[in-house]
Amino acid sequence: MPLDPRCTSCGLSGGRRQVVPPSGDLNSCLVLLGEAPGEREDKLGQPFVGRAGKWLDKCLADAQLPREKIMITNTVKCRPPDNRRPEPEEVEACMPHLMEDLKGRGLVVALGSTAIEALLGKKVKVGEVANQIVDVDFHGLKLKVLLTYHPSACIYNRDARVKLAEGLRMAKEYCGITA
Ligand code: URA
User: Fold this and answer.
1) How open is the CA angle 41-45-50, to the nearest 5 degrees?
2) Residues of 115-151 as b/e, b for ≥16 C-beta within 10 angstroms?
3) Are 107 and 30 in contact (CB under 8 A)?
4) Ligand 1 centre from 135 Cα, in Å?
5) Contact, 79 vs 34, CB < 8 A?
6) Alpha helix (H) ranges present in the chain?
7) Is the pTM of this model over 0.90?
8) How far is the C-alpha of 50 from the C-alpha of 69, rounded, in Å?
9) Cα 73 to ligand 1 centroid, rounded to whole Å
10) For the chain, which domains are there?
11) Nearest Cα to 179, choosing from 70, 29, 41?
């Protein structure tokens, strides 16, 4: 199902400026999955271009993984009010678009608990699973998923930055991406 810029499948449509589609190399083997667009993403129409995006860029640089060689997307494509976490029914409403984003990828990097929980269907403590690669059956899609920290965790947790950069390095190697 193509992403409709006028989508009204859930209540987030009422508060957004625009739908934020995936960015980067849309045919990449590797996809990074975040939570939801924030204010700047909502304004510019691209994922991870705000404060969390700056941390993501630092970790991508640490991993020598060029941003233009990967695809970046979010669990929901519209900004939740006040940057709250998306509700389960909003994640559910956006599921067809997420399935479209993840179909046929070599590896999905799930950034933080919202992305991880959307894919695994259960709650996890990110610190206990960080940088594990697991097999996931996501509504019939067979996925390899690397579980790791959300870039915004780097703001207050130095270990998260080290782990996230290490996870991105693992992902780069797994997909055979050259810098
Ligand atoms: N920006 C995004 O696009 N996604 C996030 O999860 C956070 C910030």
Assistant:
1) 20
2) bbbbbbeeeeebeebbbeeeebebeeeebebbbbbbb
3) yes
4) 24
5) no
6) 39-44, 51-62, 88-102, 112-120, 126-129, 158-175
7) yes
8) 20
9) 8
10) 11-175 (3.40.470.10)
11) 70
Residue linked to tokens 């947790």? 157
Q: CA-CA distance, 13 to 74, in Å (whole number)?
A: 15
Pocket-testing residue among 48, 57, 114, ligand 1, by greatest number of atoms within 8 A of Cβ? 48
Distances, alpha carbon 4 to alpha carbons 1, 33, 87, 108, 158, in Å: 9, 19, 20, 23, 38
> Could you report the per-residue pLDDT of 65-82, keeping only the tens digit for each?
999 999 999 999 999 999
Ligand 1 centre distance from Cα of residue 78 (Å): 10
The answer to whether residue 10 scores a pLDDT higher than 80 is yes
> Which residue among 19, 42, 74, 90 is best mutated to probe the pocket of ligand 1, counting the most ligand atoms within 8 A of its Cβ?
74
